[in-house]
Amino acid sequence: MITGTNVHLIMTADVGALHHGSVGAGNTESIRAAMSTVAPPGMMWIPGGDLFSSFVASTGYVTVAERRPNLADYPGASEDMLDPGSSVFIKPTHRVSLGNSYNWWSYVPGAQWRHPHGPDSSIAGIESHPLVHVAWEDVEAYATWAGKVLPTEAEWEFAARGGLEGAEHAWGAELSPGGTSMANTWQGGFPI
To answer: Alpha-carbon distance 179 to 103, whole Å?
Structure first.
């Protein structure tokens, strides 16, 4: 998981789109540099925060992962299989086939944005991490509440790169400049 403070690029209201992407996650110096950088026109830098919690507290919104699935949407399914939850990455203990993502993703009843690894986990201490276990309709509801619209794919890519165009990575051309990891990337054989 990504640790540290994330910085998010938000498109201002005159442009009308909400951009929410981490910049230089996991590297304090890149975060400081991003915060001191002038944002691209029509955008602004804001510190990461717990905005989704504010939305839920204000509206009483319940995410898709928190709702019991409708039996009518799953013909032939047993009702006892329709517990609210979400898929969670479970690191295998040995090499597995990469041809089947079920080898490392498992449906976990009770997994949702407040409990990212299941009902016995919480977001305490990781509030600045990216929001997980939300569906399109969840983020659409949040954006509407915030008076924004969701970005297009191109707008999101631009924001996620901090306005940097033409570079392979959000921080520049090299994956690990000077041997320093700039992001939380998988190290070693996948998925172990």
So the answer is: 31
* pLDDT averaged over every residue in the chain: 78
Compute CA distances 49 → 56, 81, 125, whole Å.
Answer: 14, 35, 12
**CA distance linking residue 108 with residue 117, whole number of Å:** 8
Name 86's bridge partners. 108
Contact 108, 88 (CB under 8 A): yes
Q: Identify the DSSP state of 41.
A: T
- What confidence tier does 43 reach under pLDDT thresholds 50, 70, 90? low
Res 40: pLDDT: 65
d(CA 132, CA 1): 11
Q: Indicate the domain borders of the chain.
A: 7-179
Kindly report the backbone phi and psi dihedral angles of residue 59, in degrees, each rounded to the nearest multiple of 5, phi listed first.
Answer: -110, -20
62-85 mean pLDDT: 93
- Assign 120 a pLDDT band (cuts: 50, 70, 90): very high
Q: Where are the beta strands (DSSP E) in the chain?
A: 7-11, 43-47, 85-89, 105-109
How confident is the model over 152-176, as a mean pLDDT? Answer: 83
